[in-house]
Amino acid sequence: MGSAPLMGDPDACDFLAGNPEVPALPGYVETLQKWLEPQDRRWFAYGMPDPRAAEAAAAALSDELGIAFEPNDILLTRGAHGAMALAMATVLDPGDEVIFVSPPWFFYEALILGAGATPVRVRANETTWDLDVGAIEGALTPRTRMVLINTPNNPTGRIYPDDTLALLAALLQRHSDRSARPAYLLSDEAYSKILFDGNVMRSPARHYARTLVVHTFSKSALAPAQRLGFLAMPPTMPDREALRKGAMSASFSTSNMAPDAVMQYALPDLLHITVDMDKLQLRRDRLLEALRAAGYQVHTPEGTFYLLVRSPIDDESAFVRRLAQDKVLGMSGDMFEMPGYFRLSITATDDMVERAIPVFEKAISETR
Length: 368
Ligand SMILES: Cc1ncc(COP(=O)(O)O)c(C=O)c1O
What we know:
alpha/beta, Aspartate Aminotransferase, domain 1, Aspartate Aminotransferase, domain 2, 2 domains, 7-stranded mixed β-sheet, 3-stranded antiparallel β-sheet, binds pyridoxal-5'-phosphate
């Protein structure tokens, strides 16, 4: 059986997507209710983005990354997806090439194609899941206009180390210096707040001036359908004024002109509503330990919601279907360019974890 028919089944243990385990985090609904109440006649009128939102986001991102972001350089969007579409529409021309890293997030290729550019896939290092900077170098051509990376990474859980980011920055700087048009680095930092074991966020924006930073509240506030994110330019970005203007026009063509009014007003408060990381880490550890004790190979994610597990049989979709027979839902690696693996999202409840463990144990024992 496939997973789709079981998604709404109350007995299913759902590890499929990074979806909330409870309807909303404490304080989330009250925050939106508060900002839903109009405070003036123009509350729901067409208008420019709310300056208080950009100010609060700039201050929070400056704290997070140790870079002084300016409110003018924060462009509010519909989630990370909107921020990436905006970045691409701003800097890409038809025929440009965009290098992205495999295993990728599901929609990178579609986003690149949607911007009229050509996707160029480069595999991550399969032992460490770090960026393979040599492979990125090999994929650069005079048409390369953008490199897209994601850290902390979905699905590998890897946070790219500063040394790697510095190497990538040096490579892109050399490339830009000898090219007619410089290359941008688009950094998808959707999971910047989902860090385990005291890890800290490392952004390439500290290393490469032409980095466009992608942020979202989908993961930190665990409310992915309530779209809000932003694209941020660091103060080191050359030609910022021209880029701001370009982004303004690009927002018209990518439906990012101004995201949902209530979400904008709520942004300063939403910065303080975040997933309970202690609880999430306990759940990660419980599942990791149980899977390893049962004989699965899993590496420890440094961040994100995901465990990447080696399938005990070559056909990972057959194994995922076997788990689904006992109502345990995981994502098969063929969905995200990781044959031989499956992915489990630990946004599932603790109760689901406990109910699923005997199923994981039984399913692997049947393969021996
Ligand atoms: C790596 C990565 N980037 C971006 C997104 C999309 O974020 P948003 O819902 O804010 O568009 C996701 C969501 O799963 C993701 O995993």
